[in-house]
Design goal:
single chain; 164 residues; mainly alpha; two-stranded antiparallel sheet; 53% helix
């Protein structure tokens, strides 16, 4: 007996939610809780507005679909569409003689020339602004979280976890 080969991991469910939806909702809930508990010096109504904003963004991000695409796929398609360098036209105007082939007259072949060694090519990949920005934001978030944990954040999390 062989295991099934056509398993779509993204369709696995946990309490009726996919793992993607669970990750998005848990992150939004964590941010909302952090705003509610962590910003005690702010007015209560402002903290509630922030909690509702995080909850709305999390719900929209987790459950919104348009034409069978979720939010990440839709945004990626829009970015790819606007970054492409050429636009394809349906039934573009062509030259009438484009399909004709002109064969050269039969002539004697010239003597074979020795092949030249290919020159080494330089890499042409350059990171785009979106790539650099995403990496810089990720590094900044990780650095900030590390510094916060090192300066007493781990103790605060332990107190919250075990109760005051």
């Amino acid at each position: 007996m062989r295991p099934p080969t056509r398993i779509d991991v993204s369709e696995r469910r946990f309490f009726g939610l996919t793992f993607r939806q669970l990750a998005i909702l848990s992150t939004a809930a964590g941010l909302a809780l952090a705003c509610l508990v962590g910003l005690r010096t702010w007015p209560f109504w402002l903290r509630i507005v922030l909690v509702l904003a995080f909850a709305a963004v999390g719900l929209i991000w987790a459950f919104w679909q348009s034409q069978g695409q979720n939010l990440e796929q839709r945004l990626l398609d829009v970015l790819i569409f606007h970054r492409r360098t050429r636009y394809l036209l349906h039934r573009a105007v062509r030259d009438h003689a484009q399909a004709r082939t002109a064969w050269p007259a039969v002539e004697a072949r010239p003597a074979a020339q020795p092949r030249k060694a290919r020159a080494a090519t330089a890499l042409t990949w350059r990171p785009a602004l979106l790539w650099i920005t995403a990496n810089a934001l990720g590094i900044a978030i990780l650095s900030g979280l590390t510094l916060w944990l090192a300066q007493g954040g781990a103790h605060q999390l332990r107190l919250i976890w075990h109760g005051f």
